[in-house]
């Protein structure tokens, strides 16, 4: 906390105890303003937390923030509600003593939100198991349920708690939540039937109408419009822009399920809520003789049905009352005003008792489970009191009187406990206790609660007094009984100046926080809080289990008058005081910065009003009566030891001697401080501020020293680390090299042994002795093969494989050749593929049989040997649809006389023709072709054998062609007669006529010559063609 003192001029001090002028209210409020402007909403007064409502979301409640404050000393970091929560929790764990947190403040100051934050902190940070998670959920979910039934929109707050709440959270020895219990105080039942202008009834009514589904509303006979119900329109504020009743309804329904309400219980509960609305719409009329009757039978019938009572009995009870005189019962009719009062009293009683049942039901779900925890002796408790703050309204009535009486008691408790804790700390540390001057409000508490003489006793007496009593008679009795009290004033007892601001129906109490005027109208009725006996009898017979639990038959049988409301509140408050006195308290004081609920706006008048009513200045004066600052020796010495050469950098002696040396060096005067047994006490904030300023001025020098020392240490450590690393690396590297070398030698020796053994056993079957050698031979062959694979399909070379790979080598060679052929074929263009196919056929026909074949291999076969213009157009027209696929010039020799005649041979897809200029001389059908004959020499003679039976074919054709290999190949392929080609080495026979054959003789010579030979044969002299 001390680290923030250097910025105190901008953001103020974190603890009001450190204010120099602590008696100045203006200084106090200015410190609040500075911190509020910087969004620092929390400030300490010693161990008391002051919280200012920011009216906006701040990023200070995350889980990370919870962890930041968890287990940290109270004053180590900035003020926060989590610091109070954690300090309370740790005190409970370490001291094994029950704790409580008291939250107070005006409506709208953030009390309810503060209690939610505390519950959430415990739920998140405490140890858990499955049961504890469920219990934590129920603790958290009890808030929206109680808010729905106990909170309302007021002029000052859209979610104002209209009841006081004290919650006990039980923890086991491990610090985990194991149970809980809630006490409620003084529910503002009058709000059920009446609201001031600009205010609303309790939230649950609007949530039910806005969020309930149509079926539910039909079951309850309700309409969605809240203006239809008289109990909801008196404040003229049925809707609130900042409140979503529909969303809140969903939250409440979910919370009821989590807490453990059954569907039947929820329905019964909603029946009661709806019945209150129907009661409010039940109207009365007055007859001529003054008798009262009900004018809205439907509304009364709906209310009776939902309450589970007989309609006629309820009607009778609302218009008549039962009196007992001298042991006899009499029925007396009610006048109009009495009937309305009876109706309103019933609505308030039903709602108030249902609220008590609701709290009781929640307590059952939070109760300690004995089957899980067999003993609660080790259980510790943290109490959480969320109760109304001091209220001063324009019109103050019975409720404000009870609320302010409660705050008087809490202030009395606070002063007492604060002084006691201060005194105990002084005695523990061995420092003389100095008497503290403060205002003791016991005189005011006695004025209100003293037996037989206090205001509450007088009010009860007036309610019980026979005869005509009224609020004015109560005021007169107060004047007679306590009129001389210095803190009590009425219009009659006041001076002239005071009378001008007080009405005759008011009395004034001088509270510890200021003066408050109370109007006595309604005091007696609200204190009586009585329900007609016959109404009680009707409600006791209810079929609604909740109401039958709330209205006991013993009430009707018991003739004893029930306790008055003020006395009930006083007794419950006394029990609360006993509970709080048995615990170690912590305090949170909540402040509302403005009435408009605007963020960033600080209304100084309003804040001063709350500072006064919360008694914060009185609190500060008590805390500052002795010493403003105290710290344990070790914390003080640890922070300020750089300011003294004797204690810097380390103090090795006793802590008290070190602190003494430090304060002597700093020049503390004896009246400025005291040394206790474990703490130093500093009286004036200026002494601490001077010490903190000196530390701030010293920090640059300390920083330089620390930097110098750190850099030297860092470099030395870095050098040692590097040197050690180098040595480790060197030794490791040398060892690794030696191990590698030894391993390589060992592996090499094993390898050589295996290789030699394998070579010796290489001819044996594959076994452990020769597997390595044989694998090596295989591997070597395959690697060598990879480098020497043939690159061309014409390359027939192949490495010689070892004996064990012969078969595999053959497969590989075949696969490789096939792969090369496939690759080659994929690269061949269509025209080259055609050429290759013709060359393959030519090879199959003529290879090694025809002398001119080798000479033709390197020459391409052409698509035709004739130009287009060389073929007669008339011939093409005669051919019609048959396209000429190939044409070549030939010499035809007559079969008789062998006269040469130049012709053109044209090949189509189905036949060939011999053409003489423009005339087709002979047609040769492929189907009729019997054979093709050529010689084995280097001549161009070819004989096409045709059948004599077909006159159209005209017999065999003897031709000479310069491109005989090309012609025969194409003709054989087109006619599909490759097997019909005959290659004759000496002569060729051909048919001259049906009965006569001709012969062509072939001889070798120097040049090509065709002539008529002996015996009428055709003689062909063929030259020898060189193949080089």
Automatic annotation (TrEMBL):
Q: Which domain of life is it from?
A: Eukaryota
Short name of one Pfam family for this protein? Myosin_TH1
Q: Give every TH1 domain span.
A: 850-1024
- Sorted UniProt keywords: Actin-binding, ATP-binding, Calmodulin-binding, Coiled coil, Motor protein, Myosin, Nucleotide-binding, Repeat
Tell me which Gene Ontology terms the entry assigns under biological process.
Answer: actin filament organization; actin filament-based movement; endocytosis; glomerulus development
Compartments in which it is found: Cytoplasm, Cell cortex
GO CC terms, sorted: cell cortex; microvillus; myosin complex; plasma membrane
Domain Myosin motor, chain residue ranges per copy: 12-696
Q: Which family does it belong to?
A: Belongs to the TRAFAC class myosin-kinesin ATPase superfamily. Myosin family.
Q: What is this protein called?
A: Myosin Ic, paralog a
């Amino acid at each position: 906390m001390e680290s923030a003192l250097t910025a105190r001029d901008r953001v103020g001090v974190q603890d009001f105890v450190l204010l120099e002028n602590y008696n100045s209210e203006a200084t106090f409020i200015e410190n609040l303003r500075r911190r509020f402007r910087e969004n620092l909403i929390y400030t300490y007064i010693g161990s008391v937390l002051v919280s200012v409502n920011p009216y906006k979301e701040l990023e200070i409640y995350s889980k990370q923030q919870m962890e930041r404050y968890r287990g940290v000393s109270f004053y180590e970091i900035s003020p926060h509600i989590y610091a109070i929560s954690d300090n309370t929790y740790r005190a409970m764990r370490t001291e094994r003593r029950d704790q409580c947190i008291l939250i107070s403040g005006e409506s709208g100051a953030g009390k309810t939100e503060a209690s939610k934050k505390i519950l959430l902190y415990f739920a998140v940070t405490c140890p858990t198991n499955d049961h504890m998670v469920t219990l934590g959920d129920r603790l958290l979910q009890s808030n929206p349920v109680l808010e729905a039934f106990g909170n309302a929109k007021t002029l000052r707050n859209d979610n104002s708690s209209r009841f006081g709440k004290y919650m006990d959270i039980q923890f086991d020895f491990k610090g985990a939540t194991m149970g809980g219990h809630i006490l409620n105080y003084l529910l503002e039942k009058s709000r059920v039937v009446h609201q001031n202008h600009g205010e609303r009834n309790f939230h649950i009514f609007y949530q039910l109408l806005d969020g309930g589904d149509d079926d539910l509303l039909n079951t309850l006979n309700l309409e969605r419009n809240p203006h239809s119900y008289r109990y909801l329109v008196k404040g003229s504020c049925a809707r609130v822009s900042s409140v979503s009743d529909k969303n809140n309804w969903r939250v409440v329904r979910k919370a009821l399920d989590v807490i453990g309400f059954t569907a039947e219980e929820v329905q019964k509960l909603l029946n009661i809520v709806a019945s209150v609305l129907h009661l409010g719409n039940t109207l009365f009329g007055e007859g001529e003789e003054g008798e009262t009757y009900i004018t809205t039978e439907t509304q009364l019938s709906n209310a009776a049905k939902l309450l589970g009572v007989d309609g006629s009995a309820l009607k009778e009870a609302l218009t008549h009352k039962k009196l007992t005189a001298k042991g006899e019962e009499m029925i007396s009719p009610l006048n109009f005003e009495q009937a309305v009062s009876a109706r309103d009293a019933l609505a308030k009683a039903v709602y108030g008792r249902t609220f008590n049942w609701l709290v009781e039901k929640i307590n059952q779900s939070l109760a300690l489970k004995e089957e899980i925890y067999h003993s609660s002796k080790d259980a510790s408790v943290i109490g959480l009191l969320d109760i109304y703050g001091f209220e001063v309204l324009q019109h103050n009535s019975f409720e404000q009187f009870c609320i302010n009486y409660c705050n008087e008691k809490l202030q009395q408790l606070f002063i007492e406990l604060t002084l006691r804790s201060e005194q105990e700390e002084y005695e523990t540390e061995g420092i003389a206790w100095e008497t503290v001057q403060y205002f003791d409000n016991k005189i005011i508490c006695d004025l209100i609660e003293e037996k037989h003489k206090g205001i509450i006793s007088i009010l009860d007496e007036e309610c019980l007094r026979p005869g005509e009593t009224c609020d004015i008679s109560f005021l007169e009795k107060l004047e007679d009984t306590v009129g001389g009290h210095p803190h009590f004033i009425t219009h009659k007892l006041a001076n002239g100046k005071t009378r001008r601001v007080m009405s005759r129906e008011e009395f004034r109490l001088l509270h510890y926080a200021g003066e408050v005027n109370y109007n006595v109208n309604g005091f007696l009725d609200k204190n009586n809080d009585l329900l007609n006996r016959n109404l009680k009898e009707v409600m006791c017979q209810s079929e609604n289990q909740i109401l039958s639990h709330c209205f006991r038959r013993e009430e009707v049988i018991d003739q004893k008058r029930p306790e008055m409301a003020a006395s009930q509140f006083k007794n419950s408050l006394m029990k609360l005081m006993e509970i709080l006195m048995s615990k170690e308290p912590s305090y949170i004081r909540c402040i509302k910065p403005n009435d408009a609920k605007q963020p960033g706006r600080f209304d100084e008048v309003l804040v001063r009003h709350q500072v006064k009513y919360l008694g914060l200045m009185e609190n500060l004066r008590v805390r500052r009566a002795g010493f403003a600052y105290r710290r344990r020796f070790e914390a003080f010495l640890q922070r300020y030891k750089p300011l003294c050469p004797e204690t810097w950098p380390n103090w090795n002696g006793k802590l008290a001697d070190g602190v003494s040396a430090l304060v002597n060096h700093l020049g503390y005067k004896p009246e400025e401080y005291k040394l206790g047994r474990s703490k130093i006490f500093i009286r004036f904030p200026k002494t601490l501020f001077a010490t903190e300023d000196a530390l701030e001025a010293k920090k640059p020098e300390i920083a330089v020293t620390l930097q110098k020392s750190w850099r030297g240490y860092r470099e030395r450590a870095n050098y040692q680390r590097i040197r050690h690393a180098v040595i480790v690396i060197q030794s490791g590297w040398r060892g690794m090299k030696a191990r590698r070398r030894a391993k390589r030698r060992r592996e090499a020796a094993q390898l050589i042994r295996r290789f030699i053994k394998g070579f010796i056993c290489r001819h044996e079957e594959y076994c452990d002795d020769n597997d390595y050698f044989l694998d090596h031979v295989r591997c070597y062959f395959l690697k060598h093969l990879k480098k020497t694979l043939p690159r061309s399909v014409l390359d027939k070379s192949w490495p010689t494989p070892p004996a064990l790979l012969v078969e595999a080598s053959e497969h590989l060679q075949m696969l490789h050749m096939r792969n090369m052929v496939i690759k080659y074929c994929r690269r061949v263009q269509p025209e080259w593929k055609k050429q290759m196919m013709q060359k393959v056929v030519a090879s199959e026909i003529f290879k090694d049989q025809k002398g001119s074949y080798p000479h033709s291999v390197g020459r391409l076969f052409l698509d035709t040997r004739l130009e287009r213009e060389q073929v007669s157009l008339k011939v093409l027209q005669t051919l019609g649809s048959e396209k000429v696929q190939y044409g070549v010039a030939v010499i035809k020799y007559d079969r008789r006389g062998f006269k040469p005649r130049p012709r053109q041979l044209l090949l189509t897809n189905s036949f060939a023709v011999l053409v003489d200029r423009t005339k087709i001389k002979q047609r040769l059908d492929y189907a009729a072709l019997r054979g093709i004959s050529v010689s084995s020499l280097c001549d161009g003679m070819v004989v096409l054998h045709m059948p004599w039976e077909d006159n159209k074919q005209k017999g065999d054709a003897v031709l000479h062609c310069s491109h005989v290999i090309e012609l025969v190949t194409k003709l054989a392929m087109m006619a599909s007669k490759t097997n019909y080609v005959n290659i004759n080495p000496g002569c060729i026979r051909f048919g001259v006529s049906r009965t006569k054959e001709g012969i062509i003789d072939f001889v070798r010579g120097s040049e090509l010559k065709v002539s008529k030979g002996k015996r009428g044969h055709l003689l062909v002299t063929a030259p020898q063609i060189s193949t080089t």
